[in-house]
Amino acid sequence: MIRRIDRIAIEMPPPSEPDPAGAAAVQELMGGRFGEMSTFLNYTFQSFNFRNRQGARPFYDLIANIAGEEFGHIELVAVAINTMLTGATPATNGGTRKAPLAAVKDVGNPHHFLAGGQGALPQNSQGRPWNGDYVFSSGDLVEDLTHNFFLETGARNNKLKVYEMVEHPAARALTGYLLVRGGVHQVAYARALERLTGADLMKLFPSPRIPTEKIPECKPHIERGDHLRLYRFSPTDYLELAAVFNGPHPETGEDLVVIDDPPEGAPPHDLPSQPAVFAPGYAPEEIAEIAEKLRERAGMSKDPSGEVANGRKSAAKPRRTTRKATAGSRK
Amino acid sequence: MIRRIDRIAIEMPPPSEPDPAGAAAVQELMGGRFGEMSTFLNYTFQSFNFRNRQGARPFYDLIANIAGEEFGHIELVAVAINTMLTGATPATNGGTRKAPLAAVKDVGNPHHFLAGGQGALPQNSQGRPWNGDYVFSSGDLVEDLTHNFFLETGARNNKLKVYEMVEHPAARALTGYLLVRGGVHQVAYARALERLTGADLMKLFPSPRIPTEKIPECKPHIERGDHLRLYRFSPTDYLELAAVFNGPHPETGEDLVVIDDPPEGAPPHDLPSQPAVFAPGYAPEEIAEIAEKLRERAGMSKDPSGEVANGRKSAAKPRRTTRKATAGSRK
Amino acid sequence: MIRRIDRIAIEMPPPSEPDPAGAAAVQELMGGRFGEMSTFLNYTFQSFNFRNRQGARPFYDLIANIAGEEFGHIELVAVAINTMLTGATPATNGGTRKAPLAAVKDVGNPHHFLAGGQGALPQNSQGRPWNGDYVFSSGDLVEDLTHNFFLETGARNNKLKVYEMVEHPAARALTGYLLVRGGVHQVAYARALERLTGADLMKLFPSPRIPTEKIPECKPHIERGDHLRLYRFSPTDYLELAAVFNGPHPETGEDLVVIDDPPEGAPPHDLPSQPAVFAPGYAPEEIAEIAEKLRERAGMSKDPSGEVANGRKSAAKPRRTTRKATAGSRK
Amino acid sequence: MIRRIDRIAIEMPPPSEPDPAGAAAVQELMGGRFGEMSTFLNYTFQSFNFRNRQGARPFYDLIANIAGEEFGHIELVAVAINTMLTGATPATNGGTRKAPLAAVKDVGNPHHFLAGGQGALPQNSQGRPWNGDYVFSSGDLVEDLTHNFFLETGARNNKLKVYEMVEHPAARALTGYLLVRGGVHQVAYARALERLTGADLMKLFPSPRIPTEKIPECKPHIERGDHLRLYRFSPTDYLELAAVFNGPHPETGEDLVVIDDPPEGAPPHDLPSQPAVFAPGYAPEEIAEIAEKLRERAGMSKDPSGEVANGRKSAAKPRRTTRKATAGSRK
Amino acid sequence: MIRRIDRIAIEMPPPSEPDPAGAAAVQELMGGRFGEMSTFLNYTFQSFNFRNRQGARPFYDLIANIAGEEFGHIELVAVAINTMLTGATPATNGGTRKAPLAAVKDVGNPHHFLAGGQGALPQNSQGRPWNGDYVFSSGDLVEDLTHNFFLETGARNNKLKVYEMVEHPAARALTGYLLVRGGVHQVAYARALERLTGADLMKLFPSPRIPTEKIPECKPHIERGDHLRLYRFSPTDYLELAAVFNGPHPETGEDLVVIDDPPEGAPPHDLPSQPAVFAPGYAPEEIAEIAEKLRERAGMSKDPSGEVANGRKSAAKPRRTTRKATAGSRK
Amino acid sequence: MIRRIDRIAIEMPPPSEPDPAGAAAVQELMGGRFGEMSTFLNYTFQSFNFRNRQGARPFYDLIANIAGEEFGHIELVAVAINTMLTGATPATNGGTRKAPLAAVKDVGNPHHFLAGGQGALPQNSQGRPWNGDYVFSSGDLVEDLTHNFFLETGARNNKLKVYEMVEHPAARALTGYLLVRGGVHQVAYARALERLTGADLMKLFPSPRIPTEKIPECKPHIERGDHLRLYRFSPTDYLELAAVFNGPHPETGEDLVVIDDPPEGAPPHDLPSQPAVFAPGYAPEEIAEIAEKLRERAGMSKDPSGEVANGRKSAAKPRRTTRKATAGSRK
Fold this sequence. Notes:
6 copies of one chain form a homohexamer.
Chain A: E1 2-4, H1 20-26, H2 28-31, H3 36-48, H4 57-85, H5 111-114, H6 141-165, H7 169-197, H8 219-223, E2 229-231, E3 257-259, H9 284-297
Parallel strand pairs in A: 2-3
């Protein structure tokens, strides 16, 4: 099971100049063969299917825990795409405009506008849907780890390419962060393979052979030490990953580190309505009115309770809403 | 972001008589158009893409939170499939056996054995991979909710059918639970639509028109009140779902309830190695030896730390492994 | 079985300024998940698979009959696309031109030119083929109707989006008409659900929440009353749809009406040859000569007999060509 | 546009011993690359996209008209599949049965039971969905005809193979008929090619080289002359196909014949409810009650009006239901 | 370019007891993600796309040459499948048999009989077609080699699984050989990675960790030394692969060897006609008569010239048929 | 089996002005339904699956041999695409450039840059992967030949269209050559059908009805006689194709000719590194240094041994590296 936290992994820039063509390219990091849906769901299925977990606990913990981080990565890719698409259509639904989507005809991924509400899709940069054939879960630990090392290598290549193609601040913030974190996962899987077989894979780094530390958008994360850290994405479990993830970093020689608490993250921007694509509706203000009434009727504060980067935080959080919490809840 | 908990939603039965043909059928609930990957990823993408969240907070919270529960459902489907596949091949890799997989030739999904290690796949009952076209995220709130109500309806149909087809205890435990929980989500989305539009959808229940309470495997969950409860799958967020999820249950008239804490769940069984398919390897005991050494080298207890249903819990949990937890960790 | 009529549902504008990028977008209404192939084939399969038709005759008749109308809609989408593509390549096959397709390189859907003869494809706006997974036919009447209501809702969204993106007169004539007719089908399925369950879905209209009557290209159809009418697309059958399709229109309160005769329609324009893509050949005049000779040899008028919007109707229709019509024909 | 007639092309046998494995095989004739969806949609798209129709009228009429017949073929394949699936699950929804679908676990196509209500699917014999790549519509008349001749050849092969594999009476009635009609279409396209190019393709027949007249289920159709006839599937149009479809049959030398009226066909059996798969519901009798009330309220006869093979025809058809048939109807 | 030789890599057993279910499983080695189409086309595309070949010649030569061998592997998989399918239908087309394919209904891959003539398909063990997403060609040499090592690892897993599942002599001969040759390619790519990066990957072998030498069907190939040899599949090129493929074998320590001449191979069995599926026709003897006449007319020997395992070799090969071999031929 | 020759079918132009949009269009000739992967793999599978080869030897030889030529065609399409993509990104990896791929954002196929290293893909002009459904191998000889004739007809159409769309010299050199060679294959399959059935298909030529001899890029090949020649792509086999491929050419009446030796071909250009996409690496010069050292260590010449169009041929080829590990193997 999971617990969901309404924060994203890092602070992301607010919407600026829209870049629908760039957003279409960034989709490769979402739904491409080496996108974050692939890393997330590969490790998730491998952890689901892991047999003899107690016997191989450090390896199970490693894979299961990295799966936990990857959810935050598909979330972050979505944030980047949504940010880049914001503003690509007129901000009002005024009756005079004739063809509010004409400007994006033959630009980028048409489903961003025709199927979705200027939102991320489970598709790659060609508009083809992610599919389950991208998941490899052989059950053979050495082989799954070999796959994972290769997957992270391919993912790093794709991130570098997207970095090179798309200059939008959201795309750059995204790829700068993912390159650092993906690098850590690449190391983790290589180290696990070393532990299991005795092979020394460290000389394969970096692959592709571009030093991440020279990329401006990677720098702050490296300076913070994020290239060395594996966070534990569980309040209670996956303790043994530290038995695998240790020793020197292959490129810098610094010690790898396990952090027991996950990163604090940041609240996301509340991206504005795009009424031309009916997101979240043709008349968002009506929805807001209804929401306010519902809160009142439920005895909550009149103001919304969620924390967002660009909004005031409601002064008083609504009181906990439990009515009959009983034996069902875990102590 | 998420936190992952190494427990599953309910206690599941241990492996018994294997049922590879049944496991192939249960895959529909994993990777079918109406499977749990679809519910999980539909609500996940809808929450990622939600615009003007503060304005529509109760609805955002509802969708985002249900996505959190759905992760636990794909996990549970995997548990059922893996349990049913356990034992379908000989338990030893003894040198005399000639064709340990011969008994499953032309039985069920061949990828359970040829591609995977007797493990769940992101495929449907026909062996076709789940794909991103199964995600609907229009950005239009009323439309997304209409979709979600339909999706849960189709999912309920599929769960009933799988219940009718597969008698293996793991499949029955799974479908009994999912029918109850899916029913709650069906109600939640219908109620949300009612709140937004004023329409009264309650007479559409149950759909398909089979009373869940007559299904033996549903009964304990209903008796516990799980047909009325929406759990909050977040330690901190999604408070406003209670502004939508309230009022009477359409079938029983009882009050719907929000539970602030997620269900306690249960530890999963540690499913045994299946060496014939190299899961987690041809010689799992070698991996176990390595694991033990790694723990020792990391200063952890010699015994594995994870909790599993069929194993002793290590007396002493390994100490927290943080070394340099600093600014990166959230207080 | 069907009878085919060589007329289209409404008068469509003749070719004007070509718009290949717009034609690529309009493909969403043909081969997209919510395109007309989906509505046509969903209702067609549901009618094929309908069990106990006599017991549920009004509902069978409704679905089977709407399927009949939808064929005319895929036809109309094709007309729009073909019209928009006309003229995108040079009209002559003169020997001097060097690269008659160069102007459409990287514009719109390349298959419009490389695979087809500037003609409609069973693909969506991304160039991906329509597929059978888009058909839902559970056999459960309430569930199929729930699906159909959702399908029409998604289709309405797509039509609005295409309207907003593409200004070509053919696209606008198409979407104006389809929005009105799709709205009727949306009402029909909601009403059928009401009849079966007692739920009142009328407050869900319109969805998306844009008033169709404000769209200029919808107006003439609404003024004619086409937003209230369900035509019977059969000379002999589907009489009982009137038992379902009645009562007030959810938005206007006017009475819904069943028309026993299908719409008269209009002859299509005979779109000109596009010799650069060999449609209907590199030298269409040779085909015309052969056709004339074949007619003469068969004792028909020298002139073609078909009726087209932009051509003279042959004065004398060729005589009926039956030779041995016997027991095989129905009285 | 089309008009739909609630009759099927030929009389089909009633349900007998169910054959779900056979039904899975027959799906090849529905959704396979050479199935009837392919013939129907190929000719339909080719007719939609036909340019310079007046110039090439006899050829346009031929293709457009055969498309009309092919709709009746997908209908007939569905009838066969639905007939073969009838009875594969228990006929009652009695509370004692534990696993009504257990008998069809790992038998045939699981979607016949899990996704559908024992009904036909737009899939092939492997359970893969039909897709738009199976449509060829180049716009080049000679090339499209070459394709169509090849398509009918492949379709004939598939029909023969299904005939050889499946002995169920419904499958045999289906393939016997389709072999004869497919043969006519094969001749029609070859003849059209001959007319356009002067080539003599008649020696290619039969292909595959099995004489249809020796197949018992083909005989009655051949004796009726159906191997020589092209029916006009339009009350008003496609007159010029007779300018192409004439001359001797390649195998028998008999004259080819155009019949101006379509075949009379026959009413389909009203296949019984299958409550185990909720088709048309868990309690079909409730739907029947509602239907009866709706008819009464609409001033119709209490009895259903549709004609089915196994039911009494309502003595008095309900009166025509038009209320405001006006300008919309064609004279 | 290639030259094709009408011999197969090894002697294969003649048809014996047919095993259509086994043949369906063996398809995984043809069209699966890790099948031989994948190895063949991955290396082929990587060689096509290789930039700066002169600069990286030893690596280019290695990849391009292994691609050459892989063609022989897809050929051998086809031989195995075709052999296993031989005899699954009656050997005669006698008029009395009623349903010659009835015995294979719901057995194995239905396309082996319905779509093909008991022949291999570009599909996997689930009947899903191979597709281009299985090709990885990033252009980055280190990354492509990492992929290739992983691909061969996955392929080895699949071969072992098929070996375990299918006991038919043809399947065993196939997998025995492919395991040995795949092992060599696995070593080759690991060695290439070592040469480029300095990493030592040898401890990863074997993976999966099953010693190939214990498999009876591998033994003869290992005794012949085939586990050490890379053959040069070119009469003129790819000389520099020897600069990469050298040093000790990771498991045995023996020296790796480059053989300048490709393996001699063996003639394939001429598999018999299967008239029930019209392969190569309903009346193969008629084709043979035509073939004989054509040879005579062309001045060739009356007997066929090809060499097959189960047939006499024509005493006198037909004379070379060149008529105007001129400048076009290479000296 | 095959032998691979490191030469391409014809001299191709060196890189010039890059044309990524054109390269995306040329992909249709690679991975489209009628692309060269389809011709290559159709004939390859048909030859693999050919039953009773001795009985039908001339036809087997024809199909098997043309498959051999088609490999050279996929190679040539790759050369064209790679040539057209060369230079689309900056030639240096200088640290100052910020977004070296920005210029190709939303241009052509994004996978040319994001997934690949500016190299050819097994995809069509829409970026969709080639798949095994494009292979037809019914086993019925007449039917397979009918298919092959149709396939070559569709391929010719596609080649003409690409010719018309793309003016880049590499695309024109490619299509000019393929049109001539495809025409020969079209004739070969038609002639084979004539030999088997007695039908006269020659009047179907040319199809599409454009005279190839008027296309400037076809002329040199026609003047050389390449429109009449079928080359034998085997040093030893496929002798009997000459029993089928003879008689007059359908368009010119000239004698068809079998050439016993394959075309000489030409060395390909060694396309330069594209460091912006890491092909063959971020620092290709490092790879070159390693390669040189490896050659030296293996006792080979210091210079690369391969022959390329734009490079000097190494004066002294390295000596043959014969059979049992001599100088070629590493000590």
